[in-house]
User: Fold this.
Amino acid sequence: MQQDYTYAVARIRFKETKLLSDADLNALLMSADADAVMRLLRDKGWGDNSDHLPEELLSIEENKLWEFINETIDDISVLNFLLIPNDYHNLKVILKCITRDIEPDGLLIEDSVEDAKAIYQAVKTREYHDLPEYMRDVAQEAMTTLLQTSDGQLCDIIVDKACMEHVYRLGKESESDMIRLYCEMFVAAADIKIAIRCANTKKKIDFIRRALAECDTLNVERLAQAASEGREEVINYLSSTDYRSAVDAIEVSMSAFEKWCDDYMTNAMKPQKWEPFGIGPVVAYIIARQNEIKAVRMILSAKLNHLSENTIKERLRDMYV
Assistant:
């Protein structure tokens, strides 16, 4: 039976009024220092009325987001496409911690589909059958690779590609246009970043092919070939794709490209503000809230490191409201 999101959307509409606007971000940016930013955020309802370090405050807000979503939606598995990358992040952390004989405390992301502690225990004891089915083969392959080669980068591309393929599948399985768009963009953006990095470091084409994941808006074989020939060839190929408008950002930096991706999604989501039904408004709110937290993290980091306002303003994303 299809889930009814009428109640969820009604609650989301109220929550949207609490999102930070561009004017709010500008006020944070103009604040004298990080303490002043924190005071303004507390006035906006951030935190829990206690004094916190900046990163603690951001963690509280991330937890509040997912607590709200869990309260609002009966079956949160529809949002696995947003959470599953955290599981693969946790897997990478666990693999490296185990092979280095250190504990992963404080390094694991709590907001995930699977219990990170259970994943840690299964990988540590090599009981791969105790892992969720989608993670068994990739965990074993990555662990074997890490033990045999001590190549952390190769381990990462094995896990990252599995993550990209998983998100792509979740998008294909979804009936929501919003989710399909997000998942496609997630994989395509990751492929582009991989291609640029591989071109910059002159990776061989076999390595590049191993790292890239299939998606609908890119021909990954052509992208791999371009990356093996150099950065300019990647730019030339992308100029013939749906991502031609991202080329200017890519030529500036990867940070500029990541901003382009976030702004692209924000603009694509804005029609959801007038959509009364479906999962779309919920997805849009979650992504908007995550971008908001990301923006505040940038501002706090800039204040703590005494960066100029112009430097950080160039990196700030467009807001949803």
